[in-house]
Amino acid sequence: MNKIFTKKIIIFTITSFVLIGLVYTVSLFRISPDKSSIDFLDIGQGDAILVRQGWDEMLIDGGQDRSILAQLGKTRPFLDRKIEYVVGTHPHDDHVIGLLDIFGRYDIGEIILPRVLADGQGYIKLLEKAKKFNVPVMLVSAGEQFIFGNMALTVLWPEDDCLDRLKVLDASHNEHDPYNTCSLVMRYDHCNENGCRRALLMADATSLSEELMMADGTITQADILKIGHHGSRFATTSEFLSVVKPKDSVIQVGEKNNFGHPNYGVLLRLKNISSKIWRNDLHGPIRAVPEGGGFRVGP
Ligand SMILES: [Zn+2]
């Protein structure tokens, strides 16, 4: 081996180590333990929300296709291959199909599903994947809490008798899909030296879920509201908004979707309370970061 060739190999090796070190340091710097964020990923028509606190992450839904992979690639530090918790709020395709593609690409700590919907049709493939990749499944209901440093995610809904509660209601409630009405609603609470802030993540909850949750006393004011059911006319009543009073509202909705989401009436109701509206179809991915006494929200 001649000397010039050996020198080149040494330079290449040193450069590689320096580069790897740099990337690793930058990656660590980006994630301090106090750093928290909520990313409303742009995955077309569907929901996908990545909540972070330091190194810990919870992915709430994964959209309806592989778009989630590109979004996670852009949003997450690539050296962190683990997503601690993956939540399927309810067994509809636009929430769980995208989740099937993350198995094998990321280490998943635990799958979380609402207990009352655990045997729902749309969860079959997700449960098969969980079994194949040895990922434990945790069934939850209202009251369950996940604490990460100075942030907590609390399950507000559904209770284990959610489907039974719907059966005894009169026919006027039949327009609501029971999977939507019993989908998993979470509350994000984050506190630091500047105060506390709150976000309400409504999944595809309907006006009926809102009514039942308000009757149970679980709905309070929140800085950010992830609007229920992609801004459909079946959710986000004026009564509900008068309790939540969100400063910012996020609608996870795809461009030119077939459902007419978001509904004009919902947009009007949000305008009436002067809530700033963020939409994935118009703004792309939306990020909320704790700042001052509230959040900084933006594309
Ligand atoms: Zn949906």
Q: What key attributes describe this structure?
A:
299 residues; 7-stranded mixed sheet; Metallo-beta-lactamase, Chain A; binds zinc ion; 30% helix; 8-stranded mixed sheet; alpha/beta
- Look up the CATH topology: Metallo-beta-lactamase, Chain A
Bound small molecules, by name, code or SMILES, are: zinc ion
Largest sheet: 8 strands, mixed
Overall CATH class: Alpha Beta
Overall shape: globular
Strand content: 25-35%
Number of helices: 10
Q: Structurally, how many domains make up the residues? A: 1
| The CATH architecture | 4-Layer Sandwich
Strand order of the largest sheet: 6-5-4-3-2-1-14-15
Describe this structure in words.
The protein has a single domain, classed as Metallo-beta-lactamase, Chain A (4-Layer Sandwich). The chain is built from 10 helices and 15 strands. A hairpin with a 2-residue loop joins β9 and β10. The termini are far apart. Bound molecules: zinc ion. Zinc ion (ZN) binds next to α3.
Reconstruct the topology from this structure.
Blueprint: H1 3-30, E1 36-40, E2 49-53, E3 56-60, H2 67-75, E4 82-87, H3 93-96, E5 107-114, H4 124-132, E6 137-140, E7 145-148, E8 151-157, H5 162-167, H6 178-181, E9 185-192, E10 195-201, H7 207-216, E11 224-226, H8 238-244, E12 248-251, H9 264-272, E13 276-279, H10 280-283, E14 286-291, E15 294-298
Parallel strand pairs: 3-4, 4-5, 5-6, 10-11, 11-12, 12-13
Antiparallel strand pairs: 1-2, 1-14, 2-3, 7-8, 8-9, 9-10, 14-15
The protein binds zinc ion (ZN).
The site of zinc ion has 7 residues, from helix 3.
